[in-house]
Design a protein that fits this description.
single chain; globular; Rossmann fold; eight-stranded mixed β-sheet
Length: 239
């Protein structure tokens, strides 16, 4: 049986958030606020890497995408609308059931499965893993599994909280402390700084080509920034 990086307690935690995943004011409200920033970054990286028409509504036409830790489809559904043949995988079976129902209601053809990335076959032009690596048992093995599912010439895009005092204050002390994120969602000791995640990706055989911060302010909300102290996105290419 394939070794997995899934932590049962993490799968159970996120499975417990399934019932209101698509409610922008529910337990996943923070993900709803993050998603437009992540999607905008993904679109920009896709356009640059695959030399897409920036005005095209479907830049991922004829390309495949794998969203690892997809939840109930917040990113997978927009990727499908951008033209990709999308596969989504998540450790929590409960959110996968919600994802399937939501995609069907939206008329989107997305392949969803419950389990770990190691259960997914084939290589994909785009692999995404947003806010996932900080929840796995073995980050190095997880990154290697991601790399193995990126097609030659493909892209890997990840996001995760940085391991800084600022990130701990905003993400755990304030966001979890005041109920903006369910308590117990994050473990600061599992956070990875950009240089550490980059090293894992390079060790897996990919080249990191971009790192961008996600910052937050009262006027702008979440937005892309050169400031990586809170959270960051990272893009790597496979030769």
């Amino acid at each position: 049986m394939a070794k997995t990086s899934i932590l049962d307690k993490e799968a159970a935690h996120f499975g417990g958030m399934a019932d209101d995943w698509w409610d922008p004011k529910g337990k996943s409200a923070m993900l709803h606020k993050l998603n437009p920033v992540r999607l905008g970054y993904v679109r920009d990286q896709v356009d640059q890497h695959f030399h897409c028409d920036e005005c095209s509504f479907r830049p991922l036409e004829d390309k495949s995408a794998l969203d690892v830790g997809c939840g109930a489809g917040l990113l997978a559904e927009p990727l499908a609308r951008l033209g990709a043949k999308v596969t989504g995988v998540d450790a929590a079976a409960e959110v996968i059931e919600v994802a399937k129902a939501h995609a069907k209601a939206a008329g989107l053809d997305i392949t969803y499965s419950a389990g770990g990335v190691e259960n997914i076959e084939g290589a994909h032009d785009l692999v995404t893993a947003m806010e996932v690596v900080e929840h796995v048992a073995d980050p190095a093995a997880f990154v290697a599994d991601l790399e193995a599912r990126v097609a030659p010439g493909g892209l890997l895009i990840m996001s995760t909280p940085n391991k800084t005092a600022w990130s701990r204050l905003l993400t755990i002390t304030l966001a979890e402390g005041f109920g903006r994120i369910p308590r117990g969602t994050h473990d600061f000791e599992q956070f990875l700084p950009p240089e550490e995640l980059s090293a894992l990706i390079e060790a897996a055989g990919m080249k990191v080509i971009d790192t961008r911060g996600i910052a937050v302010s009262p006027l702008q909300g979440f937005h892309l920034s050169e400031d990586t102290r809170l959270n960051y996105l990272l893009t790597a290419v496979k030769a």
